[in-house]
């Protein structure tokens, strides 16, 4: 990777890391499109490893605020959702599936914007976890469903709980990639040289978090969920 390419990718990782460490998700949504253009070989292995590192940092920082029960129920849905996503990819055109799922997220954003706030009880958490698993497997963007169901939690709890959920999901993905031989020496070396970018983004999130009161954080999560769904639909339609 050339110096210019490294700078572009590193800047994307810094911004994505800051965003995810502030609202609980966003690494894949913001960084993946840029990384895919500059260095496709880093997708998905390197990016997932960087996301896992970031979630570890956030989980440690926000460990006292994590909703372990909520995370557990979301993971109950995440596992079958991941399997369902893989099966749907094999049965349906990837583009159609991505657009359909992004449409579901946009529908949830619209309902939320007009006052509907899903209660994070067991059923909704399992459904959100399953949707996140399907969406993440099919498109690499699995954050919006969880952000919508956890939007009314406190700042630290949102960041910590989302990070705990995605940490387990990232480790599962890394394990699967390792088993299939998709993680090699190049993946590990790219992860190593980009680790400082994750650290910088994480440090930048500290002052950002002080600016995000619960209301701002809620609307940031809703807005970024909508942007992610729109970008996903645009990406798939442009590929037609």
TrEMBL record:
UniProt-listed InterPro entries: TM_pro_TauE-like, TSUP
Keyword Ubl conjugation carried by entry: no
Membrane-spanning parts: 6-30, 42-60, 72-92, 99-119, 125-150, 162-183, 189-207, 219-238
Chief subcellular location: membrane
Annotated localization: Cell membrane
Keyword set, alphabetical order: Cell membrane, Membrane, Transmembrane, Transmembrane helix, Transport
Coiled-coil features, chain-numbered ranges: none
PANTHER family attached to this UniProt entry: MEMBRANE TRANSPORTER PROTEIN, TRANSMEMBRANE PROTEIN YFCA
Topology of this chain in the membrane: Multi-pass membrane protein
Name of the protein described by the UniProt record: Probable membrane transporter protein
Organism: Mycobacterium deserti
Family per similarity comment: Belongs to the 4-toluene sulfonate uptake permease (TSUP) (TC 2.A.102) family.
């Amino acid at each position: 990777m050339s110096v210019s390419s490294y700078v572009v990718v590193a800047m994307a990782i810094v911004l994505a890391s800051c965003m995810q460490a502030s609202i609980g998700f966003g690494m894949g949504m913001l960084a993946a499109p840029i990384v895919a253009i500059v260095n496709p070989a880093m997708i998905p292995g390197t990016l997932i490893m960087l996301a896992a590192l970031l979630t570890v940092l956030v989980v440690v920082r926000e460990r006292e605020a994590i909703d372990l029960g909520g995370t557990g129920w979301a993971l109950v849905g995440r596992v079958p959702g991941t399997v369902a996503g893989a099966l749907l990819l094999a049965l349906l055109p990837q583009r159609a599936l991505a657009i359909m799922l992004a449409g579901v997220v946009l529908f949830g954003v619209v309902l939320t914007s007009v006052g509907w706030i899903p209660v994070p009880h067991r059923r909704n958490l399992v459904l959100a976890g399953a949707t996140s698993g399907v969406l993440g497997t099919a498109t690499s963007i699995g954050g919006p469903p969880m952000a919508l169901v956890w939007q009314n939690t406190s700042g630290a709890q949102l960041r910590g709980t989302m990070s705990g959920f995605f940490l387990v999901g990232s480790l599962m993905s890394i394990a699967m990639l390792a088993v299939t031989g998709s993680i090699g020496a190049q993946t590990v070396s790219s992860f190593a040289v980009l680790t400082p970018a994750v650290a910088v983004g994480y440090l930048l999130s500290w002052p950002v978090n002080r600016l995000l009161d619960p209301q701002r954080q809620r609307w940031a999560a809703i807005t970024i969920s909508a942007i992610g769904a729109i970008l996903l639909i645009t990406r798939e339609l442009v590929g037609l």
